[in-house]
Design a protein that fits this description.
Layout (H helix, E strand, L loop, with lengths): L1 E2 L5 E11 L11 E11 L3 E6 L2 H12 L5 E6 L8 H4 L9 E4 L2 E4 L1 H11 L13 H29 L1 H4 L3 H21 L14 H15 L6 H10 L3 H10 L2 H7 L5
């Protein structure tokens, strides 16, 4: 288990009443109170999973928000995926999984959007809810996940995991062509020179897209020049650099089967 920072504690102050003993028939009952401090651990904030572009997403945004959390460094398709402690939390046995207090949530995009809304006071990584910009932003998030992330996993299944899902050069090549059509749509949105998908500000949509562009490079998809420049600019963010180092240690890279995606 990796711990990013030392766990803090918080104090809960509770009042305890005591009753004075009676001093004879004529005495009256008095109540006095004293205050004691009870130390409780902070609620758990923990990410299960490392080693894939999808697990990178929560680690990256948690660093953008400068939030303390703990990591359970289990790698997909490893013995750690069968730990009883993990299976008790996720019957799907999928990573990443976020524990945040009493909340447990999977799916990397859902985790990122949750963190952006829940900890908005620490940093703005999505437009305000119920705004037109938020609708446009979430449209981009869903586009990236359905038209890029899911397509890349077709390649992963039929090339990198062919021993499980079966090899299919036709499926993999078709997926590459489809991905490039989706990339062209993203390129069109950047043609006005904006630095990020929604304008000047880095948002969850950019985080999702950047991880897909990294993944595309890992499976040897040549990106348009505009997307290469966009990706390289985001690569300089300190939180991204730290998250990449944390998410892709040597053991995870070995399991993935190549250099950092």
């Amino acid at each position: 288990m990796l711990t990013d920072r030392t766990d803090a504690t918080r104090s809960r102050v509770s009042a305890i009443s005591t009753r004075a003993p009676p001093k004879g028939p004529a005495s009256t009952t008095r109540r006095t109170s004293r205050r004691i401090t009870v130390s409780e651990p902070d609620p758990i904030r923990r990410v299960w999973g490392i080693g894939t572009p999808r697990t990178l997403r929560p680690h990256w945004l948690l660093r953008e928000l400068d939030l303390e959390y703990e990591t359970k460094p289990i790698i997909t398709r490893s013995e750690g995926m069968r730990f009883p402690e993990f299976l008790a939390l996720s019957q799907r046995a999928k990573i990443p999984l976020l524990e945040d207090g009493r909340l447990m949530i999977g799916e990397s995009a859902a985790i990122a959007l949750y963190l952006a809304d829940r900890y908005r006071d620490l940093g703005i990584f999505a437009p305000p809810r119920d705004s037109d910009d938020r609708a446009r932003h979430d449209e981009l998030c869903f586009f990236v996940m359905s038209e890029m992330d899911a397509i890349l996993y077709v390649i992963r299944r039929h090339e990198g995991l062919a021993q499980i899902y079966g090899e299919s050069k036709v499926a993999a090549e078709s997926a590459r062509e489809y991905f490039l059509r989706s990339a062209a749509e993203i390129e069109r949105r950047l043609v006005d020179g904006r630095t990020h998908l929604m304008g000047d500000d880095f948002n969850v949509a950019d985080l999702l897209l950047k991880t897909c562009l990294d993944w595309a490079g890992f499976v040897n998809i040549a990106l348009p020049d505009a997307l290469v420049a966009y990706s390289e600019a985001i690569s300089t963010r300190p939180a991204y650099i730290a998250a990449m180092q944390h998410n892709f240690p040597p053991a995870a890279l070995a399991a993935l089967g190549g250099p950092t995606p």
